Predict the structure.
Amino acid sequence: MSIPTLTCGVSQMPVVGYGTSKTDGVAVELALREGYRHFDCAHVYRNEEDLGRAFSKVFSSGDVKREDVFITSKLWNTCHRKEDVEKACDQTLSDLQLDYLDLYLIHWPMATQPGTGALNPVDENKVPLLDKLSPTPLETWSAMEKLVESGKCKNIGLSSFNISQIEEILKNAKVKPACVQAESHPLFPNLELLEFCKKREIAFVSFSPLGAPGRWWRKKEELSLLEDEDVLKIAQKHRVTAGQVLIRYQLDKGNAVIPKTSSQSRMKENLSVFEFSLDKSDMDCLNNLYKKAGPNGYRIYLCSEFKHSPFFPFPSEV
């Protein structure tokens, strides 16, 4: 099966990818064999070595060619200093058993203290320890650009940055961000950021398109998109599942999307979204669904524990 693609810098990114958070190499191998050709990885997921064994196994078998798969990873918060960026990328390439990444993102704009041995260093009060040198996102970006120059990364981009932060990068960058990855779903459609990216021809990738139904901090009273009556009505209308509606919602906005699942049946289901499309009434309904959660919707990944960082991207929301 051929999956449609979206231009991402110098590459073509399949619009439906596979999110690898809380998954393993067995699931990734299965996803490759089910037809996925876009994988979203990250150092902080703590599974890249396992995923690397799966990539190596499938690529070395000849069943799937490396050049036919779009692989993303992300620079973690403890590696924002210029001298740490290439080392972090090298570690990811080694773990994933790859010669290059198709896309490498700065995972968050905040920098946390390196050298503690912890991915999420905290002080005695459990408050995140910010990097004492406070490298700016622009300083980190300049080191990311060198990864493109060396051929270790075909494209570089940003994750969970706000518009003003992206603008600052655009004004000063030698290498333009190819992609912005951000939370987007009907409870938080992120339409302003999406419009910004479209105008500047930056690929937009939606994470948590289903609203992260399995998140541990979800409160009972919080709306579940997979159970919402309007989403279910649209699903019934098109004879598909609620999950397929939520994925198609992103595609019909021109986005790529990276749902995650370890279920083989759901893997198949998440790729089976190209035989229908949502009409204007469907899109209008989904675009306004956020009002059920409040005047501005509900951002799931606010990460307010980092609000003391000068680079926290959502200060108006805490």
In short: DSSP finds ten helices and ten strands in the chain. The mean pLDDT is 96.
